[in-house]
Structures are given as C-alpha cells and as structure tokens.
C-alpha cells in the first residue's frame, strides 16, 4: 500500500522538522524527492542521509518568480512533478493591534502566496498526465484561531480555502488537492514553549501528548497515494483529538 | 500549409473534446457549440502549444473562442 515508486515529489520547507519527516517518508515509499528550503546545508545533510532519489533545490519562496522557477527546475531536471507538498511556513507572532504590515505580508507571502504560485506552476504538467497530488500543510489554528497569530492563522485558513477551490477546478483531471492540519507537534517551533505553557497545552489534548512529525508525514503519504484518489478538497486533522471538526 | 494547420487544429479538437469531426466547423465555439468547459479550453491551448511549438500567452488564449480563432492565431504565430 501507498507505493509511490516512480513519482516525483517536491517538499518545501524540507529543512524543518515536519518538512524533513515528510520528505523522508515520501522517499521511503519509493518517491524521488526534491528537498527545498532556504538552508542549503541542512537540506544537503538530509538528502545525503536519504541517499539515492533525493535532490536538493534551495529556494527562498519570498521572492516573486521563485516559486514557478523552482517548479520549472524540478520539471527540467527530473522530467515531471507529481506530488507537491506546500509545507514551507513561518511565523511573525504578535497581537493584531501591534502587528506591522510587514509581519502580515511576510507570513502571507511565504505561507499562502508561495503555495498558490507553486500549485499554479505544477498544474500544467499534472493536467497533461491526468495525475497529480497537491498537499498543503495547514494548521489546527487555521480552523480554530489563535490569539497573537492573526497573520499565521489567516495564511493557514487561506490554504484550506484555496485547496477547496483548486480541488473543484481540477478534480476531473485526476488531480487531488488537500490539506493536512497538524495540532501541536514536537518541532523547534514548539520546543520554545516553557513548562507552564506546555502543561496548559497538554491539558487541552485528549491524547495528553504532542504529536510527532512522523505522524504528520503519515497523513501526507496517504493523501499522496493512489489509494487516496477519491479524497479531494479535504483537510485531514492530525491533532490527538485537540479539536474535532 | 494553412489547410494543414486547420486540419491539425481540428484533429486536436476532435480528439480532446470527443466530438464528431463534422461538428468542428471553423465558426464552432468551443464552449457554446462543442461542449467544452473552461478547463477544456485551457487544455486545448496547451495542446495547440505543444503541437505547433508556439507559446500562446494568457491574454491571447482568452480571445481564442472558436476553431477559427485558434487557426488564425497559429497561422500568424508559427
């Protein structure tokens, strides 16, 4: 099950905790994986650990033109792009009353606009081959909201809305478009929490533990697979029961 | 040569939209007469680009409504 042999996958933000796990799992299922991100050293290290079928294409998605150039490069060097995982994301937290335009813009640009541009650039080839998977990593807060993260929450909710629209546009061509919405996951992003914050968070999680990056990548592998061909426009919540929606 | 282009265009339309070639007249509109949806028209433009090795920019693609529009554009740009 979930055999991805012969598929070419692009994972953005692959130097991060969740992105790295996604790339690793897609690779383990047989896919050729392109790891993208801004930290070339970390990507090279990860790709070297994977061995064959792992490529590094560093890219800063903040710039206009970068996203489509990245997809172009994948297609040029590897022939095609079958699975796009929009995972790259950043936070610039702050109360709305104090949030600068720049903090809003930077987060929307990388988390949402780059995902849009990457998706747009990937579609042509996917439509021609009548097969494609676009999976965006949203977040539980994109559905529930979270104080201090108006920009991040907007970007993550935006991914869900965009995926639903796009899913309807291309469903007839064998392309599925879905989101995975992680809850609280053990990553550098949650490592910064203090004990008190951590305890409060755990109290809200029926499973009483944080999730792992691997548990997110399992959901991505499923959505990328042939077995998930009839699943589109959906958001798969992986959150230990923290929100049941 | 121009007939050749017209024939190749019509062949792509017939294959892509699965319609009878008798229906693919020059004045036929892809959407109104041949049952294409908007995504089909995007794909037709992609197929024309591939067949004729040309680039059809988005603003030009929007103006390609009938079979004749496609043939004319390709004749002018190939």
From TrEMBL, chain A:
The active site is at 152 (proton acceptor). It is an enzyme of class 1 (oxidoreductase). InterPro entries: 3oxo_ACP_reduc, KR_dom, NAD(P)-bd_dom_sf, Sc_DH/Rdtase_CS, SDR, SDR_fam. NADP(+) binds at residues 38, 87, 152-156, 185. Transmembrane segments: none annotated. Keywords: Fatty acid biosynthesis, Fatty acid metabolism, Lipid biosynthesis, Lipid metabolism, NADP, Oxidoreductase. Its EC number is 1.1.1.100. Pfam families: adh_short_C2 (PF13561). It comes from the Bacteria. Pathway: Lipid metabolism; fatty acid biosynthesis. GO terms for biological process: fatty acid elongation. It catalyses: a (3R)-hydroxyacyl-[ACP] + NADP(+) = a 3-oxoacyl-[ACP] + NADPH + H(+). Residues 7-188 form the Ketoreductase domain. Homotetramer. Belongs to the short-chain dehydrogenases/reductases (SDR) family. PANTHER family: 3-OXOACYL-(ACYL-CARRIER-PROTEIN) REDUCTASE, 3-OXOACYL-[ACYL-CARRIER-PROTEIN] REDUCTASE FABG. This is 3-oxoacyl-[acyl-carrier-protein] reductase. It comes from Pelagibius litoralis.
From TrEMBL, chain B:
The keyword Lipid biosynthesis applies. InterPro entries: ACP, ACP-like_sf, PP-bd_ACP, Ppantetheine_attach_site. GO terms for molecular function: acyl binding; acyl carrier activity. GO terms for cellular component: cytosol; membrane. 4'-phosphopantetheine is transferred from CoA to a specific serine of apo-ACP by acpS. 4'-phosphopantetheine is transferred from CoA to a specific serine of apo-ACP by AcpS. This modification is essential for activity because fatty acids are bound in thioester linkage to the sulfhydryl of the prosthetic group. Its main location: cytoplasm. It comes from the Bacteria. Keywords: Cytoplasm, Fatty acid biosynthesis, Fatty acid metabolism, Lipid biosynthesis, Lipid metabolism, Phosphopantetheine, Phosphoprotein. Pathway: Lipid metabolism; fatty acid biosynthesis; Glycolipid biosynthesis; KDO(2)-lipid A biosynthesis. Pfam families: PP-binding. It is found in: Cytoplasm. Belongs to the acyl carrier protein (ACP) family. HAMAP family: Acyl_carrier. Carrier of the growing fatty acid chain in fatty acid biosynthesis. This is Acyl carrier protein. It comes from Pelagibius litoralis. The gene is acpP.
């Amino acid at each position: 099950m979930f055999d991805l042999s012969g598929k070419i996958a692009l994972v953005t933000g692959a130097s991060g905790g969740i992105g790295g796990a996604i790339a690793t799992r897609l690779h383990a299922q047989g896919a050729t994986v392109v790891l993208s991100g801004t930290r070339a050293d970390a990507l090279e290290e990860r790709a070297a650990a994977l061995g064959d079928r792992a490529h590094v294409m560093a890219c800063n998605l903040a710039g206009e033109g970068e996203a489509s150039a990245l997809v172009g490069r994948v297609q040029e060097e590897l022939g095609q792009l079958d699975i796009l995982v929009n995972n790259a994301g950043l936070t610039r937290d702050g109360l709305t009353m104090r949030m600068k335009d720049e903090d809003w813009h930077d987060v929307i640009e990388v988390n949402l606009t780059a995902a849009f541009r990457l998706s747009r650039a990937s579609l042509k080839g996917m439509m021609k081959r009548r097969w494609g998977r676009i999976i965006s990593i949203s977040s539980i807060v994109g559905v529930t909201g979270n104080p201090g993260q108006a920009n991040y929450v907007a970007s993550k909710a935006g991914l869900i809305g965009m995926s639903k629209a796009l899913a309807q546009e291309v469903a007839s061509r064998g392309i599925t478009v879905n989101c995975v919405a992680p809850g609280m996951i053990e990553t550098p992003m949650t490592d910064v929490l203090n004990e008190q914050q951590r305890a409060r968070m755990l109290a809200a999680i029926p499973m009483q533990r944080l999730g792992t990056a691997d548990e997110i990548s399992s959901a991505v592998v499923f959505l990328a697979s042939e077995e998930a061909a009839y699943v589109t426009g959906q958001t798969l919540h992986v959150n230990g029961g923290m929100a049941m929606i | 040569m121009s007939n050749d282009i017209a024939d190749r265009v019509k062949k792509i339309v017939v294959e892509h939209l699965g319609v009878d070639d008798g229906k693919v007249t020059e004045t036929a509109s892809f959407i109104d007469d041949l049952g294409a949806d908007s995504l089909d028209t995007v794909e037709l433009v992609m197929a024309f680009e591939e067949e004729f090795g040309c680039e059809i920019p988005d603003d030009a693609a929007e103006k390609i409504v009938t079979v004749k529009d496609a043939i004319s554009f390709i004749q002018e740009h190939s």
